[in-house]
Amino acid sequence: xxxxxxxxxxxxxxxxxxxxxxxxxxxxxxxxxxxxxxxxxxxxxxxxxxxxxxxxxxxxxxxxxxxxxxxxxxxxxxxxxxxxxxxxxxxxxxxxxxxxxxxxxxxxxxxxxxxxxxxxxxxxxxxxxxxxxxxxxxxxxxxxxxxxxxxxxxxxxxxxxxxxxxxxxxxxxxxxxxxxxxxxxxxxxxxxxxxxxxxxxxxxxxxxxxxxxxxxxxxxxxxxxxxxxxxxxxxxxxxxxxxxxxxxxxxxxxxxxxxxxxxxxxxxxxxxxxxxxxxxxxxxxxxxxxxxxxxxxxxxxxxxxxxxxxxxxxxxxxxxxxxxxxxxxxxxxxxxxxxxxxxxxxxxxxxxxxxxxxxxxxxxxxxxxxxxxxxxxxxxxxxxxxxxxxxxxxxxx
Length: 397
Fold this sequence. Notes:
The protein is mainly alpha-helical. The chain folds into two domains: 1-202, Growth Hormone, Chain: A (Up-down Bundle); 205-397, Up-down Bundle (Growth Hormone, Chain: A), CATH 1.20.1250.20. The chain has 16 helices and no strands. It has helices spanning 2-6, 19-52, 57-60, 62-80, 85-104, 109-130, 143-171, 174-195, 209-214, 217-237, 240-247, 255-276, 281-302, 306-334, 339-367, 370-390. α4 runs parallel beside α6 (109-130). The longest helix is centred in the first third of the chain and has 34 residues, at 19-52. Keywords: Cell membrane, Membrane, Transmembrane, Transmembrane helix.
């Protein structure tokens, strides 16, 4: 339904007919893959980063907070900017490439945090724009398939990008892994610049449109539920490596493998729970925070051992893998007349919640314990579940 609305746009903005359209779609897929891998890679390398830069796990976790804050601010600003979308998308990847290379050479935690702030500029804008580009690159009948290809970069980053980067970092160093990402972003930037057609802005969107959208109770409920579950996830998942090593007793060399298990489960959750949305929209939405809560609360109680940790991480992956699709679908149901603004608000909600979640988790890890952050995440996920449940439509009489 969302794609059908997007497809109403004029076909005068389409790229030339033929292979060029699908080459551009593939390039955007590579862009989302590079973007999400860059944002999430510190999760798998947090321990090494902190040890190398003489910083605690909590302070090092600020590399996630820094990106989230700037990413949350950049999404609505870049969406309202009426520049050619090719310029914005390629510019965002250029900024990300530089940020990754600076991070790889960072002599201390301050420079690393500055590099991550720079990286955050690219996250919100690229994500908010790339997701809607399919309608401008392929005919209406092909929009669903093209959109799926572009967004599959997010799933592949979880399944391949972050685990592969973690394994590379374990085999060499976190600096090498981060530098390789910088080179990858430069290569994708070159591809995007070559294959994307001119994409002038076609919609007029003002910052004043966002408060008007927030005035709708259902939209506030959606963003509130999203914020709670994303904060829950990143307060705990940012520190998943020390959790696996110190609480579950997983060997350091197996952490990358377990993150791969998490990534595969996340893809499964994305597709499996997403398939329920047309028939059970609120049931599918409830399932996401419910599974996440069950996993994080079970780890300190019954997560000792590699096998149990892998199982609970898989449950966690299914739950969180469903979060983007169920909440994106929810806001589109509640704001079908403002899809671009709604998408930007979801991106901002994600980024701000990532920042706050990793910051809050860091304070608890340093001030209390690793276990405490899992209890906090469980409570927040349950609160998200309760909010989604209370917002469900009343049954028809």
